[in-house]
Design goal:
about 400 residues; alpha/beta; Rossmann fold; eight-stranded mixed β-sheet; five-stranded antiparallel β-sheet; 14 helices; 16 strands; globular
């Protein structure tokens, strides 16, 4: 989970990292000089993924105490053990009703800890035939390989990495934990009953916002969203829109013949995402466990993300001929996947171990922590209706009616 702690004072990066950020800013300025004001999505793409310079491409430590944020798998193995039960349910059905075995493809696998814990949890009952990782960052690939080699060396011959989504048909589970929030977004504002696009320019004091003409296609998308809202945004309202989400979902699930895609991320349904009170959107930046709102502060050294519009994800699923088979909070998903059974194991632990495990459960499930801020959605294709109606993670609470 990315920390919500805010700070007006960010620690100065060391000189060698400053030089990386300076070089990235120069590349951004050169692009602006060549093309003019940049849509925020293009700026965000460079800030996060520019080869050798972007946040996910420059080899910086991103996860855990020494990085910029902590994700659920890094808290311990409870998250993975619960998630494994949902994967096992789907995998068992596929092995019994479809030819061949099932695979897992994980997008953006972070440190590799989730993959290691899932394979450990699945190894005895219904293990996958293979585990593939879709990862853009060469640095993270290396970190994942080291983690997996250390924790699950017996699995290394069945683990591989992908440069792009598979082109051949496959069956199994596609997994994306805290991936959608890192997809690039556009920024917009409502002014005088019109929509303006927030762009990036090279100003007298550095990179800064610029209000430009909104492309017609983007404007139509925003107007379509606004038309569905009970309370219309007032002048001055700003927010985000992921215009590339349908294309991305199609790319990563297009070859999924039978199986499910599980998305776990922080976000809202559309009516909550675009509430009038949320009048500056959800864009948030993280640097050394400090949250701030300036995406132009230390580009390349700062994570930039936006909450997920889960209604938009459901709409993208429909366009990609996927069924929305479940939607709930992370807390209810984990409980549906047997969290209470894991809690019973705590009785045999020492007092110190119980304290650690209880803290992990609180972080994962309390509303003020990750329990309600994080949502889980299952998209399926080719699965039996009976299975889709009884997925473990959504058995206690299914919030699809809110979408």
């Amino acid at each position: 989970m990315r920390s919500e702690t805010s700070s007006n004072i960010l620690p100065e990066p060391p000189e060698e990292l400053k030089s990386v950020s300076t070089e990235l800013v120069s590349a951004i300025r050169n692009k602006i000089a060549l093309k003019g004001p940049l849509p925020f999505s293009e700026y965000m793409e460079m800030a996060l993924y520019e080869p050798g310079l972007g946040y996910y491409s420059a080899g910086l430590k991103k996860f855990g105490a020494g990085g910029d944020f902590v994700t659920a798998p890094l808290l311990g193995n409870i998250f993975a053990r619960c998630l494994a039960r949902q994967i096992e349910q789907i995998g068992t059905w596929l092995c019994e009703h479809a030819p061949g075995q099932y695979e897992i493809i994980e997008a953006g696998a972070g440190t590799g800890k989730l993959a290691a814990d899932l394979l450990t949890a699945l190894q005895h009952d219904r293990p996958p035939a293979s585990y593939r990782i879709l990862e853009r960052s060469a640095h993270l690939r290396q970190e994942q390989k080291e983690t997996l080699q250390q924790l699950v060396p017996q699995w290394m011959d069945k683990i591989s990495w992908l440069d792009e989504p598979p082109g051949e048909n496959w069956q199994g589970v596609f997994l994306a934990n805290e991936v959608l929030d890192a997809l690039t977004v556009e920024r917009f504002c409502i002014e005088n009953n019109a929509v303006v696009q927030l762009q990036v320019i090279d100003g007298p004091e550095g990179l800064e916002w610029h209000k430009g003409t909104c492309p017609q296609g983007m404007q139509k998308q925003i107007q379509a969203i606004i038309s569905t809202l009970e309370h219309k945004p007032a002048a001055g309202y700003c927010s985000e829109l992921n215009t590339s989400l349908p294309a991305w979902i199609k790319a990563v699930t297009g070859a999924l013949e039978k199986g499910a895609a599980l998305f776990i991320d922080y976000g809202y349904t559309r009516r909550d995402y675009y509430r009038p009170q949320r009048n500056d959107g959800t864009l948030i930046c993280h640097y050394r466990h400090r949250a701030h709102s300036d995406p132009f502060m230390w580009p390349g050294l700062t994570d930039i993300s936006a909450s997920v519009d889960f209604t938009a994800l459901a709409e993208a699923a429909d366009l990609c001929e996927l069924e929305v088979s479940g939607y709930t909070t992370q807390a209810m998903f984990l409980l549906g996947c047997g969290l209470e059974n894991l809690l019973a194991e705590f009785e045999s632990l020492s007092e110190k171990e119980r304290l650690v495990m209880n803290n992990q459960v609180r972080r994962l499930t309390l509303p003020a922590e990750m329990g309600e801020r994080f949502q889980v959605m299952a998209l399926s294709r080719g699965l039996d209706e009976g299975l889709c109606d009884n997925l473990l993670g959504f058995s206690l609470s299914d919030l699809r009616y809110r979408l």
